[in-house]
Every structure is written in structure tokens, then in C-alpha cells.
Amino acid sequence: MLRTQIKPRRLAFFIHSLEMGGAERVLSLLAMELSKENFVRVYLFDSRKNNFDVGNLAVDLQLPAVQGSLSKVFLLLRRVWAIGGVVKENNYDQVITFMEGSSLPAAIAAFLGGWGKKLTVSVRQNPYAYNFFVRLLMKLFYRPIIKVNTNSLGSKNALEQLLGRPVLLVHNPVHVPRALSGPATSSPFNRYFLFLGRLDPVKRVTDIVTGFGLATKKIPDDVGLCIVGGGPDYENISKKVAELNLGHRVRMFGPLMQPDQLLSNSEAVILASQTEGWPNVLLEAIQAHRKIIASDCNFGPREILEGVGTPENLFPVGDTSVLAEKMIHVLSHKDENYSKRCEEFFRRFEVSEIARQWVNNER
């Protein structure tokens, strides 16, 4: 069936930065794909830590994050003013914002400037994970915005409950080749489980280490755990590895620009998060036909694992004993049709198809 061609438009993206993260990766993929047939600019509040390349599309507004309540309020007002000025000066057809650090000031600027019909606000996680003040601002300023979207069914339901209005569901795209590039990295283990993502307390990577420690009592000695990523929880995770005497079975790589080889050769990708929006790393695991073990958190993992027919690989958040059981099971269980199911599920997330949904604002 022939698809209707996307009418060329002037598109502006706003986000805090293009540092490591799921939202940053999604924006970079969408911007590069849509720039093939549209005029696109990506406005950043802080370009000092960019790890995703959008070529010459990026514009730095130089309004980075600050500390302190009064400073944050003043920064919010400065961002409102900056976004309003950019949209007015450049007469964009559509403005797309990611994360509340850019979405809230954009929504306020749109309300004050009367251009709400141009704005698409993308909420990337469970809105009830935010504090009361942020939720209040979302209710006040997202309600009149014509287009609000999110990336998982659970987040959609929670947002509709909070805002009292319909929310669009547009899943994250995944693209081959990946957005990042660099030298390939291999594992020191013959077989291994893999965590790939930001080392933040909400990711509960220490649970993965603890669960792996329990599993080592029943799995072969040549099976290891690879942890790829950087972030504020790095030291706590390292301490947990030492505490459990797992230094010879766990390898912490830090951030890698090209983890593809590690991903494609892993036994399974593990996610133990307290909360999620729509975890890209699980789609990347499916792309590589890798098995997944994930916490049954809000939102995304259940939706994804049910999509590939393996909901039995979910475990309760924080339950390291059940996580260990899942690790043992995955190593011994053969699933002859898993790769076929991965291919069928993954087709829904190709970047060209998702980009079309963004511009056409389909549900």
C-alpha cells in the first residue's frame, strides 16, 4: 500500500541536551530522519555533553540546569522567553519538545504566545513519578495543548488520568545502524548477561548484581555479568560487586560509544528499573534477537515482553531471588521461535514509520 507523502514542514525540537539517554536517542533519530524532507532545527539548553550527533541541526540556547529553588524558577522563566522568541522569529509549523525541562517552558510559552496548535509535548515517563509542583504545572499547561504524546500504553493511561484529556501513543523508534558509533568492545566472558543504560538509582542495577550473585550458585562458572553505562550510581554498584566478591564474574565497562558487539553476543539483557517510560534498550535487545529479563515496573517492560511472547521473564521490582531464578531459567531454556517473533515485533518500530506518526500525529 502506498503511503501519503509527508508535506515538507518547518520543525523545531527542544530538549535539555543530547547526553546519554532514551529521549535523547529518540530525538536524534527523529530529527535526522525528518530532516531528509523538512527544515529541522534542534534547540538545546546545554550542548556541552552531547553524545548523539544531529549534524548541523543543533542550536545551543545556553540555558543549562541550575541548583536551588529560586534559581530553577528564574531558569524556567528564561527558557519560556527563549522558546517563545525562537518560535516567533522562525515561524515553525510544528514544535516538538522532550522532557519536562523543555516541555513545561514550551507549554507556558505557547499559552502566552497563542501557538498551542503548533506544539507537540512528549512525556517520556510515568507522570506520577514527578513531584506535586511539576504535576500541577503539567495539569495547568498541558491540558490546553492540542497534542500531548507518550511512548507506552501505561504512561498514556496515567497521563490521561492526570490531565483529563486524550493523549497520543507513539512508540520509540529504533534504527539500524545505531545512532552512536565508535570502536567495538568485546566481553571477557564466554557467556554473559548484560545491563546497558544509565547508572542511576532508579535503574536498580545493584539488584542485578545481587540477583546475579544468587544465580552464580547454580549457573556455570564461565557465565559473567557485563554492566555498560555511567552515572551517579556507579560507585554504589562497584561497592556491591566488591561486597559480594564478584569481581571475577562482573565487568563494569563505563559508558561505551559502541556496545553493539556486547549486545549481540549476550545471553540476555537485564532491566531492573523502579520505573520506566518505554525502555529503548529492550527494543535494541529484540532487534538483536536477545532474550530479556525485566522488572514488571510501570511502564513498558510488560508491554514489550508480551509483544515477543515472553512475559514469564518478568519479575517483581526489587525481588532479587526471583530475578536469580529468571537468570537460571534463561540460560537453560531454548525457544526455537523467539527470533521470528522478534523480527515481527520489531517492524513496528522502524524510524521511518515512527517519524511519519509524529508529523501526522496519528494515535
Account of the 3D structure:
The protein is α/β, with parallel strands linked by helices. The chain folds into two domains: 10-170, Rossmann fold (3-Layer(aba) Sandwich); 191-347, Glycogen Phosphorylase B (Rossmann fold). The chain is 40% helix and 16% strand. The chain contains 13 helices and 13 strands. Helix 2 (69-90) packs across helix 3, helix 3 runs parallel beside helix 4 and helix 6 (205-215) packs parallel to helix 7 (234-243). The longest helix is centred in the N-terminal third of the chain and has 22 residues, at 69-90. It is globular, with a radius of gyration of 21 Å. The two termini are 19 Å apart. Mean pLDDT is 90; it is low at 177-182.
Keywords:
Rossmann fold, alpha/beta, 363 residues, 6-stranded parallel sheet, 13 helices, single chain, globular, 40% helix
Shape: globular
Main sheet record: 7 strands, parallel
| H/E element order | EHEEHEHEHEHEEHEHEHEHEHEHHH
Q: Which class best fits the helix and strand makeup?
A: alpha/beta
Would you tell me the overall average pLDDT? 90
Query: Which strand-content bin applies to the residues?
Result: 15-25%
- What is the β-strand count? 13
- Write down the CATH topology of the largest domain: Rossmann fold
> Low-confidence parts lasting 5 or more residues at pLDDT below 50?
177-182
* CATH-defined architecture of the largest domain: 3-Layer(aba) Sandwich
CATH class of the largest domain: Alpha Beta
CATH superfamily of the largest domain: Glycogen Phosphorylase B
Q: What distance separates the N and C termini?
A: 19 Å
Number of domains: 2
Biggest sheet strand line-up: 3-2-1-4-5-6-7
Tell me the radius of gyration: 21 Å
The helix count comes to 13
Q: Roughly what percent helix? A: 25-40%
